[in-house]
Structures are given as structure tokens and as C-alpha cells.
Write a structure and sequence with these properties.
Family: Belongs to the EF-Ts family.
Organism: Auxenochlorella protothecoides
Strand content: 5-15%
Number of strands: 3
Protein name: Elongation factor Ts
Order of helices and strands: HHHEEHHHHHEH
Strand order of the largest sheet: 1-2-3
CATH topology of the domain at 58-115 and 157-195: Tetrahydropterin Synthase, Chain A
Radius of gyration: 25 Å
Distance between the termini: 89 Å
Shape: extended
Helix content: 40-55%
Keywords: Elongation factor, Protein biosynthesis
Number of helices: 9
CATH class of the domain at 58-115 and 157-195: Alpha Beta
CATH architecture of the domain at 58-115 and 157-195: 2-Layer Sandwich
InterPro entries: EF-Ts_dimer_sf (IPR036402), Transl_elong_EFTs/EF1B (IPR001816), Transl_elong_EFTs/EF1B_dimer (IPR014039), UBA-like_sf (IPR009060)
Length: about 220
């Protein structure tokens, strides 16, 4: 089958893969661009897994302040070299992750591996005590509890969130795509979220009483 330069160009623009890789993928897929794209993505994810064990000590700390200056986040994203850290693609990734965190208020952890065992145990106890499981056999109840806890905790992790700019992907998918594209291990190390006044006890006041006190009268 003959693969046109235009088809290669379009696939390369979509996937970020090299010319020869795009050409080979299109040939293997008999010219089917979607199948070729999926094949390249799978290969990219595989290569990302291989790079995951490499040291990532460079990177940047990104920040995003939401409109109104009442909510903000800081996030540290690591890579292997200062060259990649200063690049436009990496900077854009960090910005998007920071934006994702502002939009994902329920996120408490980067990955499932970061969730303390005591949190998992506490959630399991709560689920096991629910009335709808009272009549279930122990073996079935345990499986249901485990499934519910996994689902609940996964919803609290950043990597499993639906990517805010492309709902067909997760944050983890996007990170792995950048690993493949940039050729380096990339890790989201940590983040912090700030909400104005959070944790502070707000003083409530009786305006009429304040006026009366200042004028010597009664409210």
C-alpha cells in the first residue's frame, strides 16, 4: 500500500511521533489513520512505562491562580533534564496540570500509591457498615467493599481524573504521551491547593449592635 506524505504529516501532527514511525504505523494499519494513531499511542505508552524507572530530578514548580484570586494551586512536575524543563511542551503540560487541580477540588493525592493504608482501611470500615450489605455473604460483601473503596479513592487521585482539555483522556494518559513525545521520564511529584480563608474561623458581627455600641445606644 502507498502511504502519502500528507497522511504521514497529519498522523505526525496528531501523535507527535517521528516520520518513520508514522509511516510504519500507517502501513501496518493498511492506511487506516485511526488504527495507526491507536497503535502509536500504545507504543508510546509502552515506552513511557520503560522510562518510568529513570531518575527525574529536574522540572519546574507551576502555579495557577483562579479568577478572583480566591483559589490557587502549586504543583511540582519533574523530568530528567533542564533542557526539557525549559521547553514549551513541558511548560504547557505543567500549566494544564495546575489548571486541572483548580478544577478538581476532590483530588487529594497524585496517585493511588500515595493513599495511606489507614485511609483505605477507614473507608473500608465505613462501606462494610452500610445497611445494603448487611444481608450479603461475607465473601461477596468483601468484594463489594473492595470495589467501592477502589472507586472512591481513585476519584480522589489526580492521575485518574478526566483531562480537562480532552475528556477522552485521563491526566495519566496525557503525562505518558509527553513522556513518549519528549523522551524523558515525567512525574507529578506533589501539589498544594489554597483557598482563601480556608481553616480560619470567620468572625460574625451584628452590624446594628456595633453601631449601638459606638454611639452609646442600644441595638
Amino acid at each position: 500500500i502507498t502511504i502519502s506524505p500528507l497522511a504521514i504529516k497529519e498522523l505526525r501532527a496528531e501523535t507527535g511521533a517521528g516520520i518513520m514511525a508514522c509511516k510504519a504505523a500507517l502501513r501496518e494499519a493498511n492506511g487506516d489513520a485511526q488504527a495507526a494513531s491507536e497503535a502509536l499511542r500504545k507504543k508510546g505508552l509502552a515506552s513511557a512505562e520503560k522510562k518510568a524507572g529513570r531518575a527525574a530530578a529536574e522540572g519546574v514548580i507551576g502555579a495557577y491562580i483562579h479568577s478572583g484570586n480566591r483559589t490557587g494551586v502549586m504543583v511540582e512536575v519533574n523530568c530528567e533534564s533542564d533542557f526539557v524543563a525549559r521547553g514549551e511542551a513541558f511548560s504547557e503540560l505543567v500549566e494544564n496540570i495546575a489548571l486541572q487541580l483548580v478544577a478538581s477540588g476532590s483530588v487529594q493525592y497524585v496517585s493511588v500509591a500515595d493513599i495511606p493504608e489507614e485511609v483505605r482501611r477507614r473507608e473500608a470500615e465505613i462501606e462494610a457498615a452500610k445497611e445494603d450489605l448487611a444481608s450479603k455473604p461475607e465473601a461477596i460483601r468483601s468484594k463489594i467493599v473492595a470495589g467501592r473503596v477502589d472507586k472512591l479513592l481513585t476519584q480522589q487521585t489526580l492521575l485518574h481524573q478526566t483531562f480537562i482539555r480532552d475528556p477522552t483522556k485521563t491526566v495519566e494518559d496525557v503525562v505518558k504521551e509527553h513522556v513518549s513525545k519528549l523522551g524523558e521520564n515525567i512525574q507529578i511529584r506533589r501539589f498544594a491547593r489554597f483557598n482563601l480563608g480556608e481553616g480560619l474561623e470567620k468572625k460574625t458581627s451584628d452590624f446594628a449592635a456595633e453601631v449601638a455600641a459606638q454611639t452609646g445606644g442600644k441595638a
